[in-house]
Specification:
Layout (H helix, E strand, L loop, with lengths): L5 E2 L8 H4 L44 H14 L1 H4 L38 H10 L15 H13 L24 H13 L2 H5 L38 H10 L15 H12 L17 H7 L4 E8 L2 E3 L2 E5 L3 E8 L8 E5 L7 E5 L5 E6 L4 E6 L14 E7 L11
Parallel strand pairs: 1-2, 2-5, 4-10
Antiparallel strand pairs: 2-3, 5-8, 6-7, 6-9, 9-10
Helix pairs in contact: 2-5, 4-5, 6-9, 8-9
Bound molecules: heme C (2 copies).
């Protein structure tokens, strides 16, 4: 109909336009160049790099200066969740499930080392870079340069006396050679799944509902659910046979998921992994992008005046300030860069709640909402998925400003 769409320039975000729908422009970790400008790749988290495969660039020399820099990176980016002391008690921790890691106890889950051992430096670099799928832990490769990430790795190590203890071995567990995959090998894997008691926690169909599942807790005494193997998106270290094998052999420290290194052969670990993979539900057919809840409203409003791309990085909105004019039709496409607590993130504007409310936007599954900015003023927008009002979430909110000096938007209001 009338009016062309205009690109909105929101105050806090020069990066809006870049964030658009860019597909992997960069897997720049592979190159040695530090990757500063992070924003433009914030939507790339769907790339299929899993924990073990992330290339680890050489570590800069560990100097006092590097550790000081790591501390600065930590204070700016990590304290809200992990706490000033690194004990997992940050201001946002009470809102997070699972709770943030306690770096003082240093029980790390994603490792290449045996159960109860510390991770290697490379393991820490990888987990920080990739984040943990299905949890609030963001993928920092989109947000911090390689040097920043190495610096924060070294700083994390100072938070626990364990890393200075020479008796703490950090030897890497071999994953062996994958046996050929065949029906009979998968059947052997199935038998091992029962024999090794995977079934008591993860359940017969792998839904995380085994007989022992209800009573499990992690090191912080928080209830923990065994992984649901039917949903590949929820594997914390990414979905690949190799990661399943590594998890089986090394375990997740601080959880009931122990490692079987030394108990079973590597070959058996692969067989169980093949069986675990057979429990995944096939990917849903059809287009990835779902329609928003506001489909009907959108149809009636016609072409928007303003198309805005909103993203979320490390549990803050980008842009954090949206400025429009009264009377404009606004279309917001929201795609977060992580999946929050596993159910994605939302977007709602208080004062516009009936028209602007969406939930469950995920990486690769943006959601869209369209509405008319018919009330002037300053409003708060907030995450409607993690919490029910803007008061509850300390990090995820922003300001929506509707200015009243719009030239008359013609008479075609319906
Ligand atoms: C929005 C909250 C949040 C922020 C910000 C955050 N983390 Fe986390 N982080 C978490 C949560 C929650 C977990 C635990 C996830 C789990 O147990 O599955 C976690 C886990 C981790 C782990 C553990 C990996 C493992 O193998 O166990 C490391 C390392 C880590 N975070 C480092 C960092 C660093 C470094 C920063 C800052 C650059 C940071 N985190 C910022 C929430 C956050
Ligand atoms: C005592 C209970 C228990 C047993 C036995 C157990 N697991 Fe787990 N497993 C868990 C829990 C709890 C988690 C979730 C850990 C988390 O979310 O941090 C988990 C997580 C996993 C994961 C997820 C890794 C990821 O990247 O997210 C895999 C794969 C897995 N288990 C495989 C197995 C297999 C295969 C066996 C048998 C060889 C097994 N588990 C035995 C409790 C158990």
């Amino acid at each position: 109909m009338r009016k062309q769409s205009i690109v909105l320039f929101a105050a806090a975000a020069g990066a809006v336009a870049l964030l658009a729908s860019c597909k992997p422009a960069a897997e720049s970790e592979a190159s040695s160049a530090p990757t500063k400008a992070p924003a433009s790749v914030a939507t790339v988290a769907t790339a299929k790099i899993t924990f073990s495969d992330l290339p680890v660039p050489p570590k800069p020399a560990v100097t006092q200066q590097l550790i000081e820099h790591g501390k600065a990176v930590y204070v700016q980016n990590c304290t809200a969740c992990h706490g000033v002391k690194g004990d997992g008690q940050g201001a946002a921790a009470a809102f997070l499930m699972p709770p943030p890691r306690d770096f003082v106890k240093a029980n790390y889950r994603m490792r290449s080392t045996p159960t109860s051992r510390l991770p290697t430096d490379g393991d820490l670099f990888r987990s920080i870079s990739l984040g943990m799928s299905g949890t609030p832990m963001p993928a920092w490769k989109f947000l911090l340069s390689e040097d920043d990430r190495w610096a924060v790795v070294e700083y994390l190590k100072t938070l626990s006396s364990r890393f200075a203890d020479p008796s703490e071995l950090r030897t890497v567990v071999s994953l062996g050679t994958p046996p050929p995959r065949s029906e009979s090998v998968v059947a052997e894997g199935k038998a091992l799944y029962t024999k090794l008691a995977c079934i008591t926690c993860h359940g017969e169909a792998g839904r995380g509902d085994g007989t022992a599942a209800v009573n499990l807790v992690d090191e912080s005494q928080t209830k923990i659910k065994p992984r649901d193997f039917s949903n590949p998106g929820l594997f914390k270290s990414g979905y690949a046979t190799k990661e399943i094998v590594r998890t089986i052999l090394t375990g997740f420290n601080g959880t009931p998921m122990v490692g079987f290194h030394g108990t079973i052969s590597e070959s058996d670990a692969w067989k169980v992994a093949y069986f675990v993979e057979s429990l995944a539900k096939p990917a849903p057919a059809g287009p990835l992008v779902r329609l928003s809840q506001n489909f009907l409203v959108r149809e009636q409003l016609g072409e928007p005046d303003v198309r805005l791309r909103l993203t979320e990085r490390a549990w803050t909105y980008d842009p954090a300030i949206i400025r429009v004019k009264k009377g404009q039709i606004i279309e917001v496409t929201f795609e977060p860069s992580d999946n929050g607590l596993g159910v994605g993130h939302g977007f709602a504007i208080s004062g516009y709640d009936e028209a602007v409310f969406l939930n469950g936007a995920m990486v690769g599954v943006p959601k869209m909402v369209k509405f008319r900015a018919d009330r002037a003023g300053r409003f708060t927008f907030y995450c409607s998925t993690q919490c029910s009002t803007e008061k509850l979430h300390p990090l995820m909110n922003g300001t929506f400003i509707v200015e009243d000096d719009a030239p008359k938007q013609t008479a075609s209001l319906d």
